[in-house]
Amino acid sequence: MSGNRLGPKVRVDYVSDSGKTYNLRVDSDLVISNSGLVLGSTGGPPPKRWRPRGVFAQFPDPDTNRINRKFLICGTTAAALYASDTPATITIDGVVFTTTGRKGEKQSF
After folding, report:
1. Phi and psi torsions of 59, nearest 5°
2. Are 63 and 95 in contact (CB under 8 A)?
3. What one-character DSSP code corresponds to residue 44?
């Protein structure tokens, strides 16, 4: 299905709300421009029970009448994709998704 294929994984650096840099392994198709993710492996592993910040995006598929949803990780709070107050369009695997909201970082102890 277009827009829903998994691609190769790449290593990216993610700057947490506390300023620490974590190294994450994500699908290369989900490393979007303006997301603040930087290719590299300078950070350490993220802590357990931790969830990254990001934005939600969706694409209503006219062929199946279903809504395809993605969660796009944003590497910094200053990333244009995360800081935007208006919906943005993003192309993933040839399909145009529209952002619908954002979620902050979560750390449980």
Report:
1. -140, 115
2. no
3. B
